[in-house]
Amino acid sequence: MRVLVMGGTSGIGLATAEQLTAAGAEVIVTGRDPEKLAAVKDRVTVAEQVDGTDEEQVAAFLQRTGPVDHLVLAFSRGAGAAGPVRAVGADAVLEAFTGKVIGYLRALRYAQVTGSITFVSAASARAALPGTAVLAAANGAVERMVGPLAVELAPVRVNAVSPGVIDTPWWSFLPAEQRAAQFAVFAESLPTGRVGTAEDVAQAISYLIGATQVTGTVLPVDGGATVGS
Question: Cα separation of 61 and 40, whole Å?
Fold first, then answer.
């Protein structure tokens, strides 16, 4: 099994790459940061520097890579677009959409996939939390693509995972003590009683890759945060 994880050098993408590698898959990862790529190159089959916002780079890389059985798109631009909508600048809004929605669409344009495509979205798409309007808009756009693409790209399956609060470097904008306190508050509100890990989401992605009768689905991995949404 040959799997390409774009955005696979940190957090959910890296956890997915490591789980699939451990299961015997040939795993190719991409990322933008040379240091992160160097740190993971011995943990996967191939690690290559690709900027998902650069169409020429993406097109050349995907042509060179050739067919893959499964594609996982796990781009993340961090928390730059979080905050009150009146305080989030136009550049941050553009980066949120360029880095994720347009990045995913760009990858789909050039990728040669034979089995499945899995997007990483976020539960902000279906929540109503102050300070997440821009994140909700970008992730909502990702989730709304799933159904139409599942029909358009069939028999290739198209799904998404929608993580809630996950303990990953995405939260590094908060000091460690503040982050731990925030996680404790989140955990108390969740039916599962804890915030998620990157490995939790990776398990869900692995499931979707192997679930050959599942397509057009957005799978929440949020500890029950959006139950009933």
Answer: 19
